[in-house]
Amino acid sequence: LRCLVKMVTLHGIPKDLDSYPKDLLLFLSPSDYAETGSCEQYFANIGKANLDVLQKESSQRKQLLLEALACLKIPGTQVNMENAEILGHLVCDLDGEYIRSSGGHLLKQLSQCESFLPDQEEAIRTVISSGNTTFGPPVAWSALTLRELSGLIPVFDHSILQKIPK
């Protein structure tokens, strides 16, 4: 992908950059993209890319997340629903403090993550156990809710699982 980005940008940043595969954008910076769109648009596209192309916990992924938070002007650790949708797969790299502070706003995006760090898992359990999410408390969940949160099921502990109606 790095080589492909070099070829694509050989004569400058193409104006139709949004039509290229989203994974290519992982190897451009927001300033490169600025000529063709806003940083919000860049990170919305990055959020749809396969972040696993970059190693989890890598400096490049951490830098992307920091730049996204700065671009979206997210104060503190609370991410609203609109910004969660823009961040897309980037929410997979948010630490537990962001997950706790944002309540249930991140659950839908988090359910698409491949893996979690222990701090993230604990935060997800805390948010779900609180019941203060758009999904409500586990005792009120349906099969549809479980389908929407299916990627998070491995994180649920016994106390959450026993509350879900059969």
What would a concise description of this structure say?
The protein is mainly α and 166 residues long. It has helices spanning 2-8, 22-25, 30-33, 39-46, 59-71, 81-87, 96-101, 107-110, 118-130, 143-148, 158-161.
Number of strands: 0
Q: What share of the residues lie within helices?
A: 40-55%
Average pLDDT over all residues = 87
Cα distance, first to last residue? 46 Å
Radius of gyration: 17 Å
Beta-strand content = under 5%
**Any low-confidence stretches, pLDDT <50, length ≥5?**
none
Largest sheet: none
Helix run count: 11
Keywords: Cell adhesion, Glycoprotein, Membrane, Signal
Subcellular location: Membrane
Pfam family, one: Mesothelin
Protein name: MSLN protein
Question: What would you note in describing this structure?
Answer:
InterPro entries: Mesothelin, Stereocilin-rel. Belongs to the mesothelin family. This is MSLN protein. Keywords: Cell adhesion, Glycoprotein, Membrane, Signal. It is found in: Membrane. With 166 residues, the protein is mostly helical. It has a domain at 1-114. 46% of the residues lie in helices and 0% in strands. It has eleven helices and no strands. The protein has helices spanning 2-8, 22-25, 30-33, 39-46, 59-71, 81-87, 96-101, 107-110, 118-130, 143-148, 158-161. The longest helix has 13 residues, at 59-71. The protein is elongated and about 60 Å long. The chain starts with a helix and ends in a 5-residue tail after the last helix.
